[in-house]
Amino acid sequence: MRNVVVIGGGCAGQMAAYAAQTAGARVILLEKMPQLGLKMGITGKGRCNLTNAASMEELIRQTPGNGKFLYSAYHTFTNTDLLSLLASWGVKTKVERGGRVFPESDSAQEVRRAFRTALTKAGVEIHTEASVREIHREGTAFEVTTAERTWPAAAVIMTTGGASYPQTGSDGSGHELAKGLGHTLIPLRPSLIPLVCEEAWCKALQGLSLRNVELTLHIDGKAKQTLRGEMLFTHFGVSGPIVLRLSDAASRALQKNKKVTLSLNVKPALAPEVLDARLQRDLEKNHLQQMSNALRDLLPQRLIVPMLQAAGIGSDVKAADLSRSERLRLGQALQNLSLTVTGTRPLREAIVTAGGISTKEVNPKTMESKIVPGIYFAGEILDVHAFTGGYNLQAAFSTGYLAGVSAAGKESEQ
Questions:
Q1: In degrees rounded to 5, what are phi and psi of residue 215?
Q2: Helices 391-407 and 11-22: crossing angle, nearest 10°?
Q3: What are the residue boundaries of the RsdA/BaiN/AoA(So)-like insert domain, all occurrences included (predicted)?
Q4: Domain-by-domain residue ranges, the chain?
Q5: What are the residues whose beta carbons fall under 8 Å from the beta carbon of 273, sequence distance 6 or more?
Q6: Which CATH homologous superfamily contains domain 3-190+351-408?
Q7: Residue 37 vs residues 42, 80, 130, 161, 169: alpha-carbon distances, Å
Q8: Which of 175-179, 325-329, 406-410 bottoms out in mean pLDDT, i.e. has the lowest?
Q9: Residues 275-305 as b or e (16 or more Cβ within 10 Å = b)
Q10: Do 241 and 315 contact (CB within 8 A), yes or no?
Q11: What single-letter DSSP state applies at residue 286?
């Protein structure tokens, strides 16, 4: 029976430990925090967005960070396999909008308890508050050392996560252990992260949520991506679903010192001429009103003044006095309001960490290191990241499972 040490008790680590133990290995799971799966407990706003019901091809498409690396992992352990395993543990699931899969209980804690019970029943030896200080290679074997003791291992699975939400244990320390073994670290950056904007009016709109708007990301003046949906103004800039989705490309560009801007279209469903006709009707209807009130049927009250300022129109101007050129400028502002992105929120606040151990140094069919045989990687420690919707957790579970069965000495299914 092979000794396998798993470092990190998050989604990937717990799955790796379970897979290796049930494949015939003797598994020691080391977690630096007092409990397993702390980050699992806060995913999906505490509801735990376990996976997505999408096809394998769609799972790959929704993974902008080295998605193709996951083909073998997704083939070996599918989203259907995950749900079947959870069902066998008594966790019932449901599919919601966008294919997002949650436990029926809407409780991440139920999932955490199910994993802990399954690991215990399988015979995994679990040690919490066990921070790994060193991984020493001794021929073809390893010694994993914490403050308390040293564990011998035929294989080591590293599942220490990224550097987001360090209070849950994923503080980037695992990357340093991997670098010490000779691995290349792709620089870490935040992904799925709110964006910091320069404009004061943007911050003044803190708390205002807009639905059915369109945001276009521009990098060095070139439009790169346009999304329609919901966004939120904050005390530092912008957030919300479409902002988070655009943030990966924005973060990458900012890391390269490129100019990043957003253009906001608050009326994307209207052609410019249709919007102009609507403006004419509203201005005629409210011709005695000041412009700060004349647009209340068209826009949220708090958004009116910033739009007028963008168009160079005073808020105290009467609707009846607005010139044609001013009206056209206002229409342009409504459909092309510019925001200057100066940065992202800190990496510790990111939903996902981009960057990590280079996938070029890991065998995608086994998750074994090409640099140090016997070392395996799974989850967010790798340079793999996806959009929101359950895709990141599925990547963690699938790579964890594949690493587990591979480290146990069983060949993965092809």
A1: -120, 135
A2: 30
A3: 189-352
A4: 3-190+351-408, 194-344
A5: none
A6: FAD/NAD(P)-binding domain (3.50.50.60)
A7: 9, 22, 14, 11, 9
A8: 406-410
A9: bbebbeebbeebeebebbebbeebbeeebbb
A10: no
A11: T
Backbone dihedral angles phi then psi of residue 181, each to the nearest 5 degrees: -90, 0
Q: What does the pLDDT look like over 155-187, one tens digit per residue?
A: 999 999 999 988 999 899 999 999 999 999 999
Q: What is the pTM for the complete model shown? A: 0.91
For 353-392, how does the pLDDT look when each residue is reduced to its tens digit (9 = 90+)? 999 999 999 999 999 999 999 999 999 999 999 999 999 9
- Calpha distance 233→58 (Å, rounded): 30
Residue tagged 């436990």 (tokens):
103
CB 169 within 8 A of CB 375: no
Residue holding tokens 């906001």?
Answer: 264
What are the tens digits of pLDDT across the range 248-306? 999 999 999 999 999 999 999 999 999 999 999 999 999 999 999 999 999 999 999 99
CA dist list (Å): 284 to 307, 315, 324: 19, 17, 13
Half-sphere exposure of 221 (CA within 13 A, CB side): 0
Do residues 264 and 337 lie in contact, with contact meaning Cβ atoms separated by under 8 Å?
yes
Measured CA angle at 124 (ends 123, 126), to 5 deg: 130
Angle (CA) 43 359 249, round 5°:
60
C-alpha to C-alpha distance for 98 and 88, rounded to whole angstroms: 25
CA nearest 175: which of 167, 44, 164? 164
List Cα–Cα distances, 305 to 131, 167, 331, in angstroms.
54, 40, 14
Q: Starting at the edge strand that comes first in sequence, how are the strands of the sheet with 375-377 ordered?
A: 125-128, 26-31, 3-7, 155-158, 375-377
What is the helix (H) or strand (E) element at residue 260, kind and residue range? strand 260-265
* H helix runs in 162-271, sequence order: 173-180, 200-204, 241-255
Separation of alpha carbons 398 and 380, rounded Å: 12
Q: Which DSSP state fits 134?
A: E
Report the C-alpha gap between 230 and 215 in whole angstroms: 9
Confidence of residue 327 (pLDDT cuts 50, 70, 90): very high
> What tokens were used for 344?
């992202």
Distance CA 308, CA 327 (A): 10
